[in-house]
Structure formats: C-alpha cells, structure tokens
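Let us begin with a simple case.
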Amino acid sequence: MAYEFDFKAAQDYDAFFAKGRAKHCFDLEIKLISALIRPMSGKRMLDIGCGTGLSLEPFVDLGMNLTGIDPSAYMLDKAAERLGCRVDLHRGSAEDLPFDDNCFDTALMFFSLEFSNRPAKAIEEACRVAREQVVIGVHNRYAPRNMIRRVKGFFFPDMYSHAHLFSVWELKTMITSILGTVPVKWRTTVQFPFLSGRLISKVESIRMIQWSCWGSFIGMRIKPVPKFRTRPLVLKTRNCKINEPATGLALGFRKEE
C-alpha cells in the first residue's frame, strides 16, 4: 500500500465516519457492497485493507468466516478492539497477500484500493485468493462531491488527500487488462451527498438511480477466472545399480526355482 495510516489517522478514521452526514453516506455504501456480496452463512470472506474493521462489522453476525488484512498496525489495533476474536486479523499489503490460491469465496476491497501504489497488482492478488468473486468499493473521481474534496484537500489535507480516486471506466479498463473479458457488475450510490433522511435512502435504493455513473461511491463485483501461483518443484531421483535384482514378478520366479 502506498499510504499507511499512522496513529492519528487511525483515530480520525472512525471519528470521521461517526458524523451525521458521513455516517449516512457510509450506511449507503455498505448497503450497496452487501447487495453485491450477497453474504451467506459459512462463506469465507477476506477484507483487504480492512482498516479499523468498519467494513467488516456488518457481516460478523451473519455466520461468515471473516478475515481482515491491513498494513497499518494502528488500524488493526482499532479493528481488534471493535471485532474481538470474531475476525481473523493479519498485517500485510494488498499487493502481496500471504494466502493460498482460491482460499476465500469473496475478496473485498472497501475504500482501500485508493491507497495502493499498484492498484492493478492489488486487484490481481485479490482475484488470485478469491474463488467466487471480488467486490471493490471506491470513491468516484468524477462525482461532484469528490471533486470538491480533491480541491479542498489542497488547502486542508485529510485522508482523501492521499487517495487516488477511480472512475467506472478506469476500473473496467484495468480489470480487462488484468483478467481479460470477465463478468463485471457495477452500481453507484450517494447520488445526493448533501441530503439525508429516509426518503433519500429509499431513492438511493432504486436500481435505475444506481446505474448512474456520477454517484460518489462505486461498487463493482468481478467474477474472476481462476489463476494459480505456480512454484517450481524439486524432483528427487534415486540411483539404482544396474545389476540390482528385479522386484515384483521376476523375484517371484526366482523363488519358485
């Protein structure tokens, strides 16, 4: 990962999403991600860049086998406080996951791809360890709200100042270059970032609204073609003497004689 959250950033992360309007947007984002994942009891899910565990918390009571990985020890400390022993937490980077091929059903990247210095490699690794699907949640670089954030970040730096935002087309192009033509499904949410309430939440759930390319948050589901990391095998040979007695059938004939 290109940007690793320090102690202060880890503290500010939870505080940021606890605010009224930010919490409303976060709830919409998690709702979209959950709809794409379609969680089921017994399924194994890896959250790549799990941060403080906010993105894992909605799934802990659904009977899933959950694992989280993050490069920041401070973020993992916060995640351990929030999730306890209900999630298996690891420290590591998205570009080199310490897991075997296809050992998870789902790999999730929620607000973490933006902080990778090699996003294509991170997606490739996610597709390697995921057997069924990879779900990506990123902030849309062309959404009006995020454009304002980027301009504001020049004068008042925050965590978004370190993020590389993506568009729907940029993500799809990168996925095609890595995997070729594979099934990809996407939707967006937070179409009205400056409004909140029950009515707005219902409007945000309308499928036609979520097909907009200008929503502040993009949710994308990928069905990866299985790929495997191959390792050279050491072949062991045994030197046999030329005049060594044969085994098996020939040995049986000698006994009869």
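The second case is a distinct protein. As before, the sequence precedes its structure tokens.
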Amino acid sequence: MAVIVFMHAFGSSGRAWQPQIRQLGDSHRVLAPDLPGHGATPGPFSLERAVASIRSVILGEAEPVHLVAVSGSVSVALLVALAEPAQVAGLILSGGTAHGGRGDAVQRLMVRLMPEGLIVSILKGMYAGGKAEHLDQAAQDLRHAGKATILAGLAELGRLDLRDRLGEIKVPALVLNGAKDKANLPHAEEIAAGIHGAEHRVIPNAGHIWNLEQPELFTRTIHEFVRAVSAPSPSSTRA
C-alpha cells in the first residue's frame, strides 16, 4: 500500500484535502499533517520548521512516500525531497514556486498594511471554485493561521531560491498548474524543467487550489501517478 502525504497551502490546513483522502483512503495510506502555525500544529511558522515536521512524518514510514503539495507547500516538498531523497518515492506539485519573485516585497508590504479580515477575504478567493463548505472552511483556516503566519510564509518564500538545486531531485515528479492560475505558470515550467524527467501539465479551467475545484480529476491524477511510479519495471518483472 503506497503512502501519500498531502501538504496544504500556507494559511490552510490538512482538512483541505478531504475529497482526496475520502477517495484514496481505502487503497492507500494517506496522511495530511498540519504545517506549523496551521490547524492543530502550534506556531510559529518557518520553512525550516515546516520541513522538519514533514521529515518527521516520512521518516516514521517503512517505505518511501509520495508527496502531494499545493501552493506554498510545494517549496516545502522540494526541500524535503532534497533533504530525504531515500524517503521520497515521487512528487506531485501544483501551483508552487522554487524561488521568490521581484514583487514579493511589495506583496508582503501590502499584506502587512491590511487588516486581517481583508487578508482572509482576499485569500479565500483562491478556494472560490470549490463548494460553499470549502470556502467557509478556508476562511476558518485562514483566520486560525492568522496574519503573522501568513506574513511569515510570504517572507520565507521571498528569500527562497532552489533553482540551482532542482537537478539534485531524482524521483519521478509531476508538476501541475491550473490554466487560470497564470501567475504561477512560469514557476511550474521552471520547476518541471529543472527536475530531470519531470512532467508538466496545465489543467484546463482550473485555478490555484484546484484539488477542491475539480476533486475527481485531481484524485484520479494522483492515483494514476502513484500507480505508474509503483509499478514494477520490465527488467524486475523478467528477473
């Protein structure tokens, strides 16, 4: 039974993966930990603490795991794969980045000046393509994480640059991006180009958090990837 570790967006929580957990839980071991400062996990948030939290999860598993990450947690997944290559069987990465952009400082300043209620109102729009219950849940998670955690995540991503290290990742990787999430398309292309053998797919009519917009397609994509990666190679079959 393959192990799948779901990694949520910054400001969210592990429960954002409920559609996938429900569908895949019978055939796979599924884990959806809350990152530091999110859900049930105490803060403060930092990339170092986030990576350590995921490393502790996967090092407790007998077999290498598949990491499925969206948005900010894509950077965490990349760092985990670099730190624990023997414990990662595959990567599914959606809507993330391997480095900060020139507009990050401006974005952080704008968020710092906004009241928390406005931040929640703006960020929950990333979940608007899902059901009403997902939008309500996203707002709850964002309020629980709070402004300080959201700012910490933005600051950490702004300082990050993994472009020169992507070639060190040797596991199968599927890099995804919603077609409507235009700002992250160049980042997805960059990650896919940097990881040897990675596949890049643009998902039609999908936004940033599209595992809730198109849950059946996202779940099927995970299932097919894990099955393909887990299948024995022809040489091992002949042996």
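The longest helix spans residues 132-159. The chain is about 45% helix and 15% strand.
Keep these points in mind for the review questions at the end of the chapter.
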